[in-house]
Design a protein that fits this description.
By secondary structure, the protein is mainly α. Helices cover 72% and strands 0% of the residues.
Length: 159
């Protein structure tokens, strides 16, 4: 039987209490008392959380932009637009808190992955089997535009 050190034991038993204790130790400068290994793990997890959240929000945003641009259903437009606005606001909030993530969000690879995921989602919905969604986003991947332009107005002008 492996005996866990007291620091690790608390981490395994009660994450919130462990966090409160780590914060108190940091404030008091008790660096030798810190559970460094698990603290690093938690900090790495926090860094990845915002990146995952941005990708999820971007995917949802693109999914609803696709619906609004290519599905003719006036009944659904308002709901899709609310979802678009909500996700834009959430992305802006994350970027306001962590401006360095804008570089991550501007990554062509991230945009392509998010678009492909959004495309899989809309194509999987049975109501949209007859809709011809484009294999690539027709309006560019500039994140400032994605967060502000009503692309359905541009696509209506094309038709």
């Amino acid at each position: 039987m492996q005996i866990l050190p007291q620091k690790t034991l608390l981490y395994k038993q009660d994450l919130n209490l462990w966090l409160e204790q780590a914060i108190a130790q940091l404030k008091l400068g008790q660096l030798k008392e810190l559970d460094i290994e698990n603290l690093i793990e938690e900090l790495e997890g926090l860094a990845g959380r915002d990146r995952r959240e941005l990708k999820n929000r971007l995917t949802t945003l693109l999914e609803h932009l696709l619906k609004r641009c290519y599905v003719e259903s006036e009944y659904d437009y308002a709901g899709w637009q609310i979802t678009i606005i909500r996700n834009r606001i959430e992305i802006e909030n994350i970027l306001e808190q962590s401006p360095s993530l804008k570089h991550y969000l501007n990554s062509p690879e991230l945009f392509e992955n998010a678009y492909n995921s959004a495309l899989r989602l809309v194509r999987a919905e049975s109501d949209y089997k007859s809709v011809n969604f484009p294999n690539s986003w027709q309006f560019g991947s500039d994140i400032d535009a994605i967060l502000s332009v009503d692309f359905w107005e541009l696509s209506e002008k094309k038709h």
